[in-house]
Amino acid sequence: MSSEKDQYDRAQRKQALVLIVDDHKLTRELLKTYLRGVEFATIEAENGQEALSKLASHLPDLVILDLLMPLLDGFEVCRQIKENPRTALLPVIVATGLDDFDAKMKALEAGADDFIHKPVNEQELLMRVKNHLRIKQLTDDLENAENVIVALIRTVEAKDPYTRGHSERVAKYARKMAESLKMDDSRMQVLRRAAMLHDLGKIGLDDAIIRSPDKLTNEEREKVHNHPSIGIEIIKSLSFLSDVLDPIRAHHERFDGTGYPARLARDKIPVEARIIAVADTYDALTTDRPYRKAVDQKAAFAEMEASAASGQLDPNLVAKFIEVMAREERESPESQDENGRS
């Protein structure tokens, strides 16, 4: 994952930066001529060692790499690029005069993303570079989005040390349920992000309310009931999070229609919100809070079944959650060791 400085440097650039690595000066000059213009800026290296040095001081958007070079060949340069978390997502286009199957396989094993044959055709080069940069932009957007989510979560957790890690655990439990329900990948991503951000609105609550070991007053309870709406206000301007608004808004609705903020019931509550409610309840029961100690899994399951019977949680999803968690417990190495000794 790239650093904040790398992301800032990229944002400041108006042109995509391409690193050209080739031991032949004429080849480097030709590639620079093809690429230079409104869209691309270039830097160059004449061998593998210089390429790695340039990568340490610059983070380009794409690398064009020769294979046969002195000091450090292109195979090793590519391998090191892909093994470094900072540069692992950089597209690497191998430009080579080799038409050897084994060499291509070796380059692919090292992490090469594409090939272009020498002598390089200008139109083909521009097409391949633009295609890989388009894909990389999508990857960068996703990385930036995830960084925003993590930053928002850390802000919430800074207010309450008891809930540190809560959002990640709720997301983990929610994903287990989604997999058992065979949700498609796009819905699972919405669910994961909503689970990660479900308590974001607690940023707007007083620390004294969040950490209070005592029963809340009616006024304090009303403020707590507003936290889903506060969370929506914070993220509604972030277009990449538009799909999570409804699940976050509804994660405190009750299955019987007596929850908040809109008193939705049954299938009027988004299934993602119902899943988050189940996962949230389990994590709240099995971790220490200011107002009570954690309970073990068996006791947590019993309380969740009681909550389903009283109309708080979706009974089918509670049953599914218990089934998934119990199966995971049975299949764990620790459980199998115990069974082997009995």
UniProtKB/TrEMBL annotation:
List of residues that carry 4-aspartylphosphate = 66
Q: Which residues form a coiled coil?
A: none
Q: What is this protein called?
A: Response regulator
- The record lists the membrane-crossing segments as none
Q: Name one GO biological process term.
A: phosphorelay signal transduction system
Record's PANTHER family? CYCLIC DI-GMP PHOSPHODIESTERASE TM_0186-RELATED, LIPOPROTEIN
Which UniProt keywords are listed? Phosphoprotein
Show where the Response regulatory domain sits.
17-133
Presence of keyword Iron-sulfur:
no
Q: What is the species of this protein? A: Abyssobacteria bacterium (strain SURF_5)
Query: What are the HD domain coordinates in residue numbering?
Result: 163-285
* CDD domains xrefs: HDc (cd00077)
Locate the HD-GYP domain: which residues? 141-337
Q: Which InterPro entries match?
A: CheY-like_superfamily, Cyclic_di-GMP/3'3'-cGAMP_PDE, HD/PDEase_dom, HD_domain, HD_GYP_dom, HDIG_dom, Sig_transdc_resp-reg_receiver
